[in-house]
Amino acid sequence: MSNQPVQTVSTSSDKLKVALAIVAVLAGVVGFFVLSSQSTAVRALALVAGLLVAVGFAWTSAQGRGFVGFAKESVRETKKVVWPTRKEAMQITAIVFAFVLIMAIFLWGTDKLLEFLLYDVILGWKQ
């Protein structure tokens, strides 16, 4: 038997919280633009307030808690990555540049060969 993942059904209150979070973000953005005659600090405060209210609503929903868990797990996985040394990174970068150069020369040569065959040999336009 295969194990199927269990999905939780979100309640209507969770959907309402997510909707309110979206409305709060939109209100912050709209406030930022509506207050264009005000100082930059007031405009930024309106935007940040909208975002903070949205985070508050989202944090209390099941989807928000799931996102926070996902973010924590992502950070944990990132810490497990073995990063290359400076020497290895420089070698890999040099290999990529060399490959790009070789491919550019190959594509240029292919283009010129096809140009010669089409215009000179087949059509006879460049005589």
Topology:
Layout: H1 12-34, H2 40-59, H3 62-79, H4 86-122
Helix pairs in contact: 1-2, 2-3
Structure, described:
This protein is mostly helical and 127 residues long. It has helices spanning 12-34, 40-59, 62-79, 86-122. The protein is elongated, with a radius of gyration of 28 Å. The chain starts with 11 loop residues before the first helix and ends in a 5-residue tail after the last helix.
Give a quick precis of the structure.
With 127 residues, the protein is mainly alpha-helical.
Order of helices and strands: HHHH
Distance between the termini: 73 Å
How many β-strands, per DSSP?
A: 0
pLDDT averaged over residues: 88
Overall helicity = over 70%
Key features of this structure:
single chain, 127 residues, mainly alpha, 4 helices, 77% helix, 0% strand, elongated
